Amino acid sequence: MKKFYILTGKGILLFSFLFFGLQSRAQTTLAAGDIAFTGYISSATDQFSFVLLKSITSGTTINFTDDAWLPAGVFAGGEETVTWTSTTALSAGTEIKITGLVATRAGSGIVSGTVTGTAGGINLSTSGDQILAYQGIAASPTFISGIHMNVYALDVSACAATLAASWDPDCVAPVVVFVNSPPD
Fold this sequence. Notes:
The protein is mostly beta strands. Helix content is 8%, strand content 27%. It is built from one helix and nine strands; from the N terminus they run H-E-E-E-E-E-E-E-E-E. The chain has a five-stranded antiparallel β-sheet, with no helix packed on it. A four-stranded antiparallel β-sheet has the order 1-2-5-6, with no helix packed on it. It is globular. The N and C termini lie far apart (67 Å).
């Protein structure tokens, strides 16, 4: 004989909490322009910062790489990628600073999320580099933002000469934001 159970009172409350609680943990899907880089420092301790221009849920992940994006629609390879994951819901206007594999709320020192990836984080060149932010996998990224700090007078790898005011001419950049250094 089969038994059927009917949820009542506390059972409905527990079911609702589990069902809706799990759904609220789904990551926020971001699009180009939903974050903006606010700073970039290439030194002994590389760091960068960005501001959320859209509120996000806990569990939202963003990948950051200093790998060049080529006209063929692939990353050049050989560079680092770190992944930031929010551990709480954050509102638009929140600024995050990533130093190595540590993320803090810019200006407060409060830890904000987790960072995983290459030991030591992104290795930004002191002569110039770029950071591209994306969601998804590297083979099929959804670009969110980018910052460019390259200046090369000669052909470098698959990208031709570049200027301080433009992306590498033979490389493709999804979004451009020019800034200086992240806040303390």
